[in-house]
Specification:
The protein has helices at 8-24, 32-45, 123-129, and strands spanning 59-61, 66-77, 82-91, 98-100, 105-113, 132-138, 145-153, 159-162, 169-170, 175-180, 183-190, 195-197, 204-205, 211-215. The longest helix has 17 residues, at 8-24. Strand 6 (132-138) and strand 7 form a beta hairpin. Helix 1 (8-24) runs antiparallel to helix 2 (32-45). By secondary structure, the protein is α+β, with helices and mostly antiparallel strands.
């Protein structure tokens, strides 16, 4: 199994504690009852599987693993310069927490905002008030914005990691970051692309693998 490098210290510390506890409490069966599932969960949290990426043109793939929590029409998105649709994905502590690019494009802006740690299932509250990191993705040729991806912390999550920088070019499904321990990821698509959302609220999605919207307009035009 592939693990994300950003979890190496947590996994190392967890492994050391597990081994030390096993030595100290080897004669006490009760030690294994809580310790085994906890260390298994810790390693599972940082799993980072390779995914088959759809080759279909003019689609957006899910930027995260999780459950679609809300689909919202927006009258005007400042970053996209017009109306848009936003798809919110809730990531539980059992989901893969790696974030991926929904499409090909170049990062034109990254905006980090300090904030609260509200439950990420509180859609509007978490989206507006929680600590977040927002990436604007543009068509490299025209510089026209084609997507906004927002990493949002949750009640448990305390750290947003973004490996990408302004000016970087991303491919569809490419890894660009991670949110540690329960969170929310949003994908906002401009209406001029004529997006047809292909998921429903409550549906589970896999990052990079599942198509989240099909576009009526050419993404590269």
């Amino acid at each position: 199994m592939r693990f994300n490098g950003h979890g190496k210290w947590e996994m190392l510390i967890g492994a050391v504690v597990f081994v030390a506890g096993s030595v100290l409490f080897y004669a006490h069966w009760w030690w294994w009852v809580p310790a085994t599932p906890v260390i298994a969960w810790l390693f599972a949290f940082f799993r980072d599987p390779n995914r088959p990426i759809p080759a279909e043109p003019n689609v957006m793939v899910s930027p995260a693993d999780g459950t679609v929590s809300d689909i919202t029409d927006i009258d005007h998105d400042d970053r996209l310069n017009g109306p848009a649709v936003r798809i919110g994905i809730f990531l539980s502590v059992f989901n893969v927490h790696v974030n991926r690019s929904p499409c090909d494009g170049k990062i034109s802006a990254i905006e980090y905002k300090e904030g609260k740690f509200l439950n990420a299932m509180n859609h509007s509250g978490a989206s507006n008030d929680n600590e977040s990191n927002t990436l604007t993705v543009v068509n490299p040729a025209t510089q026209k914005p084609v997507a906004v991806v927002k990493q949002i912390v949750g009640l448990i999550a305390r750290r947003i990691i973004c490996d990408a920088g302004v000016g970087d070019t991303l491919q569809r499904g490419q890894r660009f970051g991670l949110i540690k321990f329960g969170s929310r990821t949003e994908l906002t698509i401009p209406k001029w692309l004529e997006p047809k959302v292909t998921v429903r609220i409550g549906q589970k999605v896999a990052g990079a693998k599942d198509v989240i919207a099909r576009l009526g307009k050419d993404l590269s035009a």
